[in-house]
Write a structure and sequence with these properties.
2 domains, 103 residues
């Protein structure tokens, strides 16, 4: 899960080039099979999507670890007490969990 964060940016760039290369990319060929012409060198929207996708792929695992640690720090008894008092899942999240993980 933490592997994308540990990959060097240059190595990640080569990986994404191999996946989305217009001539030999694996994902490009799959998209062509569905009738979608992918060429990020000619379409700036596709190029921006590729930059965002690569950034999200590399950073999501790091952010997820912090979010998971914050969720695990919430005492289970508080959540159970809120459920016993009649708070639904949405109310428990917004009134109990979210304030506790933002501190």
């Amino acid at each position: 899960m933490i592997l994308p964060y540990a990959v060097a940016p240059a190595v990640a760039a080569v990986l994404w080039i191999f996946l989305f290369s217009p001539g030999m990319g694996l994902i490009t060929h799959v998209l062509a099979g569905f009738g979608y012409d992918w060429n990020h060198a000619q379409n700036s929207g596709q190029a921006m999507f590729l930059v965002v996708l690569a950034s999200v792929w590399q950073q999501i695992s790091y952010n997820f670890l912090f979010f998971l640690a914050a969720l695990q720090s919430i005492p289970r008894s508080l959540v159970e007490a809120a459920a016993i008092d009649g708070a639904g899942p949405v109310r428990r999240f917004f009134n109990l969990v979210l304030p506790l993980i933002t501190r």
